[in-house]
Give the backbone structure.
Amino acid sequence: MLEGIFVEGLIYAIMALGVFFTFRILDFPDLTVDGSFPMGAVIMATALSGGINPLAGLLLAFSGGVLAGFVTAAIHNRLKVPHLLAGILTMTMLYSVNIRILGNRANLPLLRVDTIITHVSVATRGLIPADWASLLFFAMVVLAIKFALDLFFHTDMGLVFGALGNNEQMVKVQGVNPATLKLIGVGLSNGLVALSGAFAAQYQGFADVNLGQGIVVSGLASVMLGEFIIKSNRIGMLTLRVILGAILFKAIMYLGRFYGYYINMTPNDLKLIAGILIIASLAVTNYRRIRGKGGTAA
Amino acid sequence: MISLQNLTCTFHAGTPNAKTVIRDLNLTVDAGEFVTIIGSNGAGKTTLFNLISGNLLPTSGRVFIDGEDVTAHPEYKRARTMGRIFQDPLAGTASNMTLEDNMMITCKKGFKWPVISLNRKMRAYFCEQLVNLKMGLESRMKENISTLSGGQRQALTLLMMVLSNPAIALLDEHTAALDPRNAAIVMDLTTRFITEHRLTTLMITHNMNHAIAYGSRLLMMDAGEIIIDVSGADKARLTVPKLLEMFSTVRRKAFENDEVLLAAG
């Protein structure tokens, strides 16, 4: 069970990194996530049942997510629609698109197809137990993504992303079009989210168009939990704490699922718990800020 | 360098709240000119800058930069030949990033690709440039901008603007939010950089003495129009009382703006 928490935490960490990119770096609260996560899952499932190589399937899922992000950013940039509404529009449209991708079905089981997880356990058979093999595999995947992101935020483009969320006027004065940056940023973020959805479908053994319901809330909760664990301003720490936050969030959800029945809780209450977790995080941050201000006021 | 033709800007045009902020304005600024702009609140000084930088689109009229009609160009495109500094020292830098990251973003104009340019050579170059500010910032390149004072931030913004190599500098009361000592330091740096880099400069100021002391040409704006335009020898002979007298002759009313008069005193 313990490695299950870690594996799920790591899979969702990829999504949380995407959420972190839009919410924290770009300052673009993007709700497309609720649609792009199941989109990654259904693209992956369809690809696998069609006999496509799992790696190619992952690439397809990532590209699908990028496209979804492009749609949201384009609605926001071109029509001057507020980002929240743009995200909700894409997310709603994606529900129908996802059912189309699955061939007019709402879910698709992956019982008799070889997923990337089957490949991993075949490759490591006899060396380590299957559960630990997938844990090791996902740890490597997530770390690779984390380091790639860290590197990206040290490039010229990555630095401008940092400035965009902080001071959009400064970016314009530098002769960079903020609309282009938002397109790239929201696209990349949703690419990560869809990748996470693709892994989640393979791990759970099925893809479902309702997989994404409330996923942005759990991503945000992971980001906020991470901010409680580590205080830092360095990008390497920022991405690390998102991953830790995602694992912690999954652990809390597991506890809720396994021990919740003592207080009459059912798995249906978990979304409520996720929401309360965010509200509590916000309240604590707010309280700290007010107290911090009171202490330093001249 | 800059040419404005019959520029008019009306806010809320076609509604009962319509307000004309710039009225049929014509202005030509030659390359290398240093123009100071003075005027009471609501005279349209900042709106004029917004129209030149592309932050606002005119209701009618055209904007030419270097002979090219840029009236339809968005702000980020025009910004490639233009540097702009605002009154708010927070507006020119990203406070949650380090000094060197800020300099890396601003050291050249235009689209940024995902390549890492911030290397040892770049850091040495930034360090060398920061020494020019004489503020000790060269030893604080890894610190967050939020730890800098307003004067340091504004001086840094000025340096970063110059490094990005623009042809035109728009300075919008960039020393107004600073204490007198820092304002003087930033003003000294401003004149030094403008001469060194031969920037075509427009500077809005609330300080009549500054408007008279600095630059090669002085414009006074009132109600969306340029009412006084002096340059050359006439500008050199200008004094505050003379300027006030000119205003009342043109407008047949006394110049009433405590802020400007107090700053003049």
In short: Strands of chain A lie at 107-109, 206-208. Chain A has a mean pLDDT of 90. The two ends of chain A are 52 Å apart (CA to CA). Residues 178-204 of chain A form the longest helix (27 residues).
